[in-house]
Write a structure and sequence with these properties.
By secondary structure, this protein is of the alpha/beta class. It is 45% helix and 15% strand. The chain has helices at residues 2-13, 27-42, 47-61, 67-84, 88-127, 180-190, 204-207, 210-217, 296-305, 323-333, 338-347, 360-366, 375-384, 394-406, and strands at residues 147-152, 160-165, 171-175, 193-198, 220-224, 236-238, 243-246, 250-256, 265-269, 275-279, 282-283, 286-287, 315-318. The strands form 3 sheets. The chain has a 6-stranded mixed β-sheet with strand order 1-2-3-4-5-6, with helices on one face. A 5-stranded mixed β-sheet has the order 7-8-9-10-13, with no helix packed on it. It starts with a helix and ends with a helix. Bound molecules: zinc ion (ZN). The site of zinc ion has 4 residues, from loops.
């Protein structure tokens, strides 16, 4: 249970927020109580999610075989801790602890990987012919050069994971496969081989599934060229304009998109109908936050200079499902936005597993962060910021909107 202990130790650093002395006898139990108290205090704003993650972590702790799940849960818990800690020094200390725990885990996983791969390969050779590009029930669209499988994790953070597959070879790229179980299972059902992982950025609710997917598939990890010190086991660092090939037919161009963090990559597909995998930069009807290593002015530049310039028919695949809450924010900022008003009932309470995929053209109508010149957005903004200039520049509007969204 070294991983969980490592997090506990780091949490103990932040235990000063917990005043209540432990009331149980055993030292290990007492440590846990202090750590859990600290965690809950640190993330009280997100208490229901923290409670659920911790319950899961505690349940897993009693299962020696569940290291991989602990790794993911650690990632989720730590994402909450980091989100709840306002002290930068403390946050980076906790983050460093988790990164080291992940690196240790990845090392152990790598040692097991080789043997496992050989076992799997020989089993496959014995039992069945090589996997085809698709399972019998789901023939690939013959016209499609890229298949996108969106995987709804159903977790407290509302993450979407993605598999992008080549219909000819069955090779697949996994984007931020936090829910490794669902990702590996989807690949198995489709008869795909995950050969690469792309982390859009370094937050643990995006990287937390890497180690298990690598251990199971031997996939190579790809991330922003500056993310190497923050993500364990990166095999390939990418920069703007680099192309990731998947199998024979899929080409994904890397966009360097700082703002949510400074090491964020979005992918744009080179397909007839383009797709944008936007991580935590552009959400449906919203924009990523900037409080864990990001910067609102850089996010503005990313929106205006890169994302807004993509074709209107670009399909948008974000890292989380926040559409309902984001639409409500749009309507709070721009009450006369007819498109947002019309869409809200459709997405209210929708199942994110089958939720709609928006296009960039739609986003320009419903996403406040792409409507920086709208007179009603500016008028409402002036009510919140009386000192707003008569003709505010779009960057100011964006930064102020982001500020309001932080408190939304
Ligand atoms: Zn993030």
């Amino acid at each position: 249970m070294g991983l969980l202990n490592s997090l506990k130790l780091k949490l103990l650093v932040s235990a000063t927020v917990s005043a209540a002395p432990p009331t149980v006898q055993s030292m290990a139990e007492a440590e846990r109580v202090v750590a859990l108290n600290a965690l809950l205090a640190a993330v009280k704003k997100q208490r229901p999610a923290a409670d659920a993650a911790l319950k899961h972590a505690k349940a897993l702790e009693s299962r020696e075989a569940a290291r991989k799940d602990i790794e993911v849960t650690l990632g989720q818990v730590t994402a909450l801790v980091l989100g709840g800690i306002n002290d930068d020094g403390l946050r980076s200390e906790v983050d460093a602890g988790l990164t080291k725990a992940q690196a240790d885990f990845a090392k152990r996983a790598a040692r097991r990987r080789h043997a496992r791969r050989h076992r799997t390969a020989s089993r496959r050779a014995r039992c069945r012919p090589p996997a085809k590009a698709s399972s019998p029930g789901t023939p690939p669209d013959p016209g499609a050069s890229m298949i996108v499988e969106r995987i709804w994790t159903g977790n407290a953070y509302r993450n979407y994971n993605y598999l992008i597959a080549c219909p000819e070879s069955g090779e697949a790229l996994a984007i931020d496969p936090l829910d490794h179980e669902k990702c590996l299972n989807a690949a198995r059902v489709k008869g795909w081989q995950i050969t690469q992982i792309l982390n859009t950025h370094e937050h643990h609710d995006h990287t937390g599934g890497n180690a298990v997917v690598v251990a199971a598939t031997g996939a190579k990890i790809i991330a922003h060229y500056n993310a190497g010190s923050r993500i364990a086991g990166v095999d390939r660092g990418v920069k703007a304009g680099d192309v990731i090939k998947v199998g024979k037919t899929v080409e994904l161009e890397c966009l360097d998109t700082p703002g949510h963090t400074m090491c964020h990559i979005c992918l744009r597909s080179r397909t007839e109908t383009p797709a944008l995998f936007s991580g935590d930069t552009l959400f449906n009807a919203g924009a990523g936050n900037c409080h864990n290593g990001g910067n609102a002015e850089d996010l503005y530049a990313t929106f205006v200079e890169q994302l807004a310039r993509l074709p209107d028919d670009t399909r948008v695949y974000p890292g989380h499902d926040y559409i309902e809450n984001n639409l409500r924010f749009t309507l709070a900022r721009e009450p006369d936005n007819a498109a947002a008003k019309a869409l809200l009932p459709e997405v209210t309470g929708q199942d994110p597993a089958t939720g709609r995929v928006t296009t960039l053209g739609e986003e320009k109508q419903i996403n406040t962060f792409l409507r920086l010149s709208s007179p009603s957005v500016i008028a409402a903004l002036r009510e919140a910021f009386a000192d707003l200039p008569e003709q505010p520049d779009p960057k100011t509007v964006f930064v102020k909107l982001r500020e309001l969204r932080n408190k939304w």
